[in-house]
């Protein structure tokens, strides 16, 4: 193994580990990771990927982070999410904002796998709308803080020794000081875990509810300044969006690899399946999506490794298009593999189920597309700066000009503005993708196809934008509720009995 290239060493380790020790279907069925996995991963450095070497971490470059997460995603989403949570959700707020004594104490434990970490933001009442959180912290006269509240869906929530809890802080007199982060040792009295959430996929890595009942932490637990929690979370989690896309990319690559093998060996009515025009088209489009994501992530990583500024829009684009496109490539592979794709033992079905999550967490596609569109609307010059930086050819520049016009022409009505922001966010992402792929078009015939494919996606979206933006064609919220209310006649009231081992309480948001 190459000790000079830590990422290569990790890739070699992971490939061998997968062959010798992993059985994803069994992990799924048992809803657990193999017992030695955490310590095995720690030994090779996978739990301290970007922790500085001075704290015993690996200090990997961003390009190497992508390589490692693509490999993890290709093997199993549970492994990818374990490492995503430890390395990009739990660790960055500590590196960024904990005080030096806390870093000296905690970071080596994380880097060597003696402790796990996560971040707790989501709550029963809020997900994407972080500023609406209810968990509260009060500053005590001794300078410490008392935290009360509840968090939901926390990955590693029942396993992590250190949890970054974000809460609305008030001073001793009840005056609001803003969202603030606290590094909480989960052994502190008042830290409560449970129940475990039973999720559609990602079954080997459970999520938990957490509750804090008069949980007292010292002043040293505070992450950054009072009131700086939202900014810390934003900065700390931005880079995690790229590795989520890198992981999904790995799953898409593995799925396409299997679909291509199947198509090559399979005979259908027209002869070789791999030679059938329609199948070639499906596979080529999925391949273009995968290559486009790969290029996009490599571009971002190269800028970061060179110490260049990367505007937030690129991270949003990576999360939105990376997770959407790579997951849809998994879906295409599953369809091409037909019955074999649907089998639980053939990997692709499991990737399909597990990576569905990546379109939802750490910023759902809709929430961050609307956010990106809103930001661009406020600062149209920001979009032009993105375009100028990559200096695309005439065709893409012309399309970018049309996007800029659309950004500059928002509607007045609130609901129409939501749609407009979403259309803008999506078009901005596709402009970035078209720029990146056109820049790489000369590298191979596949790269040329991918560039044309991405440009066509942008053109098609621009063509359908006027229809998408005509919000008046939508039924009103009340009309639609009426329509769905009528389904009861066709399907009755069929809420099923809940078994004791399941989360048995009916979710109040789902009761009719
Ligand atoms: C397996 C799993 C693991 C998780 N791990 C963690 C964790 O470790 N830590 C943590 O803090 N959280 C975690 N989460 C929570 C996750 O981050 C949230 O589920 C996510 O932020 C979405 O929130 P929500 O589910 O409450 O949906 P909501 O935010 O209520 O969204 C509901 C719907 O509205 C859409 N929507 C939301 N905002 C907008 C908008 N502005 N415009 C248009 N549409 C919008 C969404 O796309 C979605 O379709 C996890 C979730 C899961 C399922």
User: What percent of residues are in strands?
Assistant: 5-15%
* N- to C-terminal distance: 58 Å
The proportion of residues forming helix, as a percent range, comes to 55-70%
What is the CATH topology classification name of the largest domain? Butyryl-CoA Dehydrogenase, subunit A, domain 3
**Total of domains:** 3
CATH class of the largest domain: Mainly Alpha
Helices and strands, in order, run as: HHHHHHEEEEEEEEHEEHHHHHHHHHH
Poorly predicted ranges: none
Q: Oligomeric form of this entry?
A: single chain
Summarize, please.
The chain has helices spanning about 5-20, 25-30, 35-45, 60-75, 75-95, 100-110, 230-265, 275-305, 310-340, 350-355, 365-380, 380-390, 395-405, 415-440, 445-470, 475-485, 485-490, and strands at about 115-120, 135-140, 145-155, 160-170, 175-185, 190-195, 205-215, 220-225, 265-270, 270. With about 500 residues, the chain is an alpha+beta fold.
């Amino acid at each position: 193994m190459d000790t000079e290239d830590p990422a290569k060493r990790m890739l070699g380790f992971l490939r061998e580990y997968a062959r010798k020790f992993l059985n994803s279907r069994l992990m799924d069925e048992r809803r657990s990771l193999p017992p030695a996995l955490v310590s095995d991963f720690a030994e090779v450095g996978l739990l301290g990927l970007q922790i500085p070497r001075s704290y015993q971490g690996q200090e990997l470059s961003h390009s190497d982070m992508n390589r490692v997460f693509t490999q993890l995603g290709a093997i199993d989403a549970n492994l990818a999410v374990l490492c995503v949570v430890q390395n990009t959700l739990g660790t960055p707020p500590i590196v960024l904002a904990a005080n030096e004594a806390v870093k000296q104490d905690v970071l080596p434990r994380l880097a060597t796998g003696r402790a796990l970490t996560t971040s707790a933001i989501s709550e029963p009442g809020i997900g994407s709308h972080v500023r609406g959180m209810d968990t509260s912290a009060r500053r005590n006269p001794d300078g410490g803080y008392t935290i009360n509240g509840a968090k939901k869906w926390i990955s590693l929530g029942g396993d992590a020794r250190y949890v970054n809890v974000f809460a609305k802080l008030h001073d001793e007199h009840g005056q609001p000081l803003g969202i603030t982060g606290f590094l909480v040792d989960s052994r502190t009295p008042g830290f409560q875990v449970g129940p475990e959430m039973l999720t559609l996929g990602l079954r080997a890595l459970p999520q938990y509810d957490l509750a804090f009942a008069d949980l007292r932490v010292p002043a040293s637990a505070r992450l950054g300044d009072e009131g700086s929690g939202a900014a810390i979370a934003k900065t700390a989690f931005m880079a995690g969006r790229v590795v989520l896309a890198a992981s999904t990319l790995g799953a898409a690559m593995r799925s396409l690899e299997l679909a291509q093998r199947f198509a090559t060996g399979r005979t259908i009515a027209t002869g070789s399946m791999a030679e059938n025009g329609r199948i070639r088209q499906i596979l080529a489009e999925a391949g273009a999506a995968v290559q486009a994501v790969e290029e996009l992530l490599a571009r971002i990583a190269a800028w970061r490794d060179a110490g260049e500024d990367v505007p937030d829009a690129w991270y949003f684009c990576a999360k939105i298009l990376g997770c959407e496109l790579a997951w849809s490539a998994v879906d295409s592979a599953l369809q091409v593999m037909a019955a074999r794709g649907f089998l639980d033992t053939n990997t692709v079905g499991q990737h399909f189920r597990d990576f569905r999550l990546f379109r939802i967490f750490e910023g759902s596609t809709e929430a961050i597309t609307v956010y990106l569109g809103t930001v661009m609307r406020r600062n149209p010059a920001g979009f032009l700066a993105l375009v100028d930086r990559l200096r695309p050819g005439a065709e893409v520049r012309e399309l970018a000009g049309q996007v800029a016009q659309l950004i500059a022409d928002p509607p007045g009505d609130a609901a129409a503005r939501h749609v407009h922001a979403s259309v803008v966010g999506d078009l901005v992402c596709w402009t970035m993708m078209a720029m990146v792929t056109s820049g790489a078009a000369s590298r191979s015939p596949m790269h040329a196809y991918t560039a044309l494919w991405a440009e066509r996606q942008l053109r098609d979206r621009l063509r359908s934008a006027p229809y998408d933006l005509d919000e008046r064609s939508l039924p009103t919220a009340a009309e639609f509720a009426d329509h769905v209310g009528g389904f009861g006649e066709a399907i009755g009231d069929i809420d099923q009995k809940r078994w004791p081992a399941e989360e048995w309480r009916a979710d109040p948001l789902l009761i009719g």
